[in-house]
Amino acid sequence: MDPSKHSSINRRVLISSLxxxxxxxxxxxxxxxxxxxxxxxxxxxxxxxxxxAILDFVRLTTDRSSPSYVAPEERISVFDxxxxxxxxxxxxxxxxxxxxxxxxxxxxxPELKDVEPFKTVLSGNREAMARLSTRDLEEILAATxxxxxxxxxxxxxxxxxxxxxxxxxGQHYTELVYQPMLEVLRYLRDNGFKTxxxxxxxxxxxxxxxxxxxxxxxxxxxGTAGGTTFGYDRDGKPFLTKEPKLLLNDDxxxxxxxxxxxxxxRPYAAFGNSNGDREMLEWTGAxxxxxxxxxxxxxxxxxxxAYGPAQGLHDSKVGTFTQALYDEAKQKGWVVVSMKNDWxxxxxxxxxxxxTR
Amino acid sequence: MDPSKHSSINRRVLISSLxxxxxxxxxxxxxxxxxxxxxxxxxxxxxxxxxxAILDFVRLTTDRSSPSYVAPEERISVFDxxxxxxxxxxxxxxxxxxxxxxxxxxxxxPELKDVEPFKTVLSGNREAMARLSTRDLEEILAATxxxxxxxxxxxxxxxxxxxxxxxxxGQHYTELVYQPMLEVLRYLRDNGFKTxxxxxxxxxxxxxxxxxxxxxxxxxxxGTAGGTTFGYDRDGKPFLTKEPKLLLNDDxxxxxxxxxxxxxxRPYAAFGNSNGDREMLEWTGAxxxxxxxxxxxxxxxxxxxAYGPAQGLHDSKVGTFTQALYDEAKQKGWVVVSMKNDWxxxxxxxxxxxxTR
Lengths: 357, 357
Description:
8 strands; about 15% strand; globular; alpha/beta; homodimer
């Protein structure tokens, strides 16, 4: 399942050793970097159109003498997660989670052992896994994301995040967040904006780490959401079970629909990186006054990845950013951020310091 | 539709005259009372078990030396609305709204004029309206709450709330909120708690006035919610249409399910007044540490209404509070608030001053 499982053992040992050094203690998570960030805003952004669009937007919406002044309670900003706040290539982290959870699920439900698609996932045959259909994947998602209490699910995700590592960088997934975006989150909050995540990923999954990693509380995470069912255990104690019933498909048109459901206000700032964010940016841009609409272009194969318009990787299953979206952005004056040119750092200093290759 | 329509004309004239007096200007809404409330907490509460349960809970959860101390970001409190924050008898305000919107809907859709149940509602025959089935009511709710853009809906509700009056008191519905509960909301917020409304009523309906009336922003209103559909108008401008598709039935077991969907944390304090709030209080009470669970008993026919256990009105369609719920409350140590004995005021001073009978 984890293609690096065998090759990364030495890296893991090395990282464990590094982690015990006193100088690094307490700085292992981006949250720590966030807390220690200097008060100069957007330090990891190079001077240019993108950085100044953010600074101008905040000035226009928070200066009381500005015609675009926005009352503090109206200051809502929304951020896609995968590919906007953290790495999404080569596979969405939550999909990695679901695949890696299959052995534990089969242990509890041995009848699935010889049944597809679980049999293929257990085989570890990556070519066969790459051929799994959408329906197969949905079955895996349902088996690994539903059927347990909300507390059990939270504990399972937390445990996995503390152990799992991205194969390219040998880092925890929660460390592969974009330092410039952490700075935007912080800068907007320092100026009275509420920051929301609006993700096609699972709402309950992201809520497990959103506070620690992004400083965003669970109630400000909007994601693809399934229903729960209220019930009682043998002692009469109530609990909620996660059900395989889709309430909100928080992608594309589902993003503005999800924002209406969960917030009930139109955002003033929206950040995305793919066609899944198009409607959210359109909805944000259709409001009056100053509205910030930004799309992150992954054009930095050295420090991260290159995909999207004129970058290759067009057939990728994640982060589709078509030429049509790029053209719409240019036509409507949305800001396209170049990872390569606009960011002088990609990852937090604590992550960079621990990256082993 | 409005049984007081004819008899209340003189009252309305009187109120209009009163409203023009300078001494009352700016004090017509509870929000004003809220802003001017003194800093002594819970002034409208008589000394007794209920008041002290609230004071003790706040001390236990906010004193850093207390074993029940709760971190500020975890301080979530939830409030039912109908019968807990404002009057629900003899009919839920939102149902009154839907019935009174029927003429406007029929004007736009004349084909409904001679079709049931709209024909009956238009007739104004109250006996016939009382016999409408649940299915009839659902049809009326769908016709009056869906099919328009979210902005159109907000404008329609706002306009109605500014004009409509409760027949008993001759007051706007938003003025018939409970002063002691406004004080609880404020006291909890002053102590770092986020206050949420968790209502069986319509989420979009309550969000129109929640900030002004309760100081609760729309994103902290959880209610029965329908889906919306994202689309574009002729000029390519995006908008959201309210659809007759139920996403969340926020009553009974739907309340803890709705809290999980919208907040993702278990509340520390929950306030209700009926069997519809039972699961929410159970879910709150099943958490560790200090948790406040309160039920309001309507036992004050002189100042408001009397219903619930041993109060008569047992067959009422609103605010069902069975003996079984009362027994569960006593057994689990939930606090039952007596409107008659625990509250020295029911409505805000500005409302009381303008009540004409």
